[in-house]
Amino acid sequence: MEASRLTSLFGRHDFAIRRLHSLLGLMPIGGYLVFHLATNAAIIDGPAAYQHRADQLHKLGPTTIVVLEWSLIFLPILFHGIVGLMIVSRGKRNVLSYPYADNWRYTLQRLSGALAFAFILWHVFDLHGWLRWSWWVENVARPLGGARFIAEEAPATAAAAIGRAWWVIAFYAVGVTASVYHLANGLWTMGMSWGVWTSEAARRRMNLPCAVVGVVLLTIGLAALGAMVRAGRTPAAGREPAGTAVLKRAAPVEAAEESPLRVLGLARDSGR
Predict the structure, then answer these.
(1) Phi, psi of 133 (to 5 degrees)
(2) DSSP string across 210-268
(3) What are phi and psi of 266, to 5 degrees?
(4) Taking the CB of the first residue and of the last residue of the chain, which one, N or C, has fewer CB atoms within 10 A?
(5) Burial of 66 per CB tally in 10 Å (0-12, 13-18, 19+)
(6) C-alpha angle 267/63/180, rounded to 5°?
């Protein structure tokens, strides 16, 4: 019954839902992907640069981070991903019958979207445990192998999580590739659906700019992934043992005024 109601709702508001789905894919999701890849690229300059970038982000404070994450990242991604899966389930693939380039791009866009959505859900749980609630982190996420990232020890914990097994590294490479392709090709398809470029000549002209966006972002993402893996395998001179940074920060953190979210039991060191 609920599934039929959801399908009926989608049918009644198909145009508006698809337009919102498309718009959220560009902003804020696409914008955040660019920002996220650029931020993680700091590891290319070394663990110290990566830690500095993490410290800058967490100066926003836990309350601001939670609000920004859910309003500009998590909720838009959930909406975009769920609606995208509904579009895939309702779509008709005709690649085998009509093997034209546009049909292949349509199919790859749907496949890359589904793969990117699955990767993002896993990635967020693996590093951050989905929720910042301390009870959830300690009793659910970490016992299940998630919430591996600690902001005060960003290079060490991120490198340990990503480089812990060959399949994790491979999944990151595939997930980054799928996410970048979905964004770059999505720019091209979005221009068509919004009527920005409708002629065949205009679509051909936009192939190169969209491809350049994809190549640049993929290069940044894979370079950052490689640097992160190397950081985990190369002993860094002067690297402090795990937990040292947390102990150094313990006194000022305990003395600081507690934020509203910490009073509710949200851990500062369990997320981004």
Answers:
(1) -65, 125
(2) HHHHHHHHHHHHHHHHHHHHHHHHSPPTTPPPTTHHHHHHHHHHHHSPPPHHHHTTB-G
(3) -90, 130
(4) N
(5) buried
(6) 90
What's at 200, amino acid-wise? Answer: E
The C-alpha atoms of residue 256 and residue 200 are separated, in whole angstroms, by 61
150: amino acid identity, one letter = I
Residue 178 burial (10 A CB sphere; 0-12, 13-18, 19+): buried
Query: What is the Cβ-side half-sphere exposure of residue 80, based on CA atoms within 13 angstroms?
Result: 28
In CATH, the number for domain 17-270 is: 1.20.1300.10
Distance CA 109, CA 253 (A): 45
Tokens standing for residue 23: 């718009």
CA 129/CA 260 separation, integer angstroms: 20
Nearest to residue 214, comparing CAs of 253, 185, 243? Answer: 185
Q: Please answer whether residues 84 and 21 qualify as being in contact, where contact means their C-beta atoms are separated by less than 8 angstroms.
A: yes
Backbone angles phi, psi at 240, to 5 degrees: -80, 150
Going by C-alpha positions, the residue among 28, 30, 52 that lies closest to residue 40 is 52
Report the candidate in 127, 157, 162 with the shortest Cα–Cα distance to residue 142: 127
Distance (Å, whole) CA 183 – CA 178:
9
Q: Compute the distance between CA of residue 161 and CA of residue 172 in angstroms, rounded to an integer.
A: 11
pTM: 0.81
When pLDDT is cut at 50, 70 and 90, the band that residue 151 belongs to is very high
Q: Are 231 and 44 in contact (CB under 8 A)?
A: no
| Domain locations along the chain | 17-270
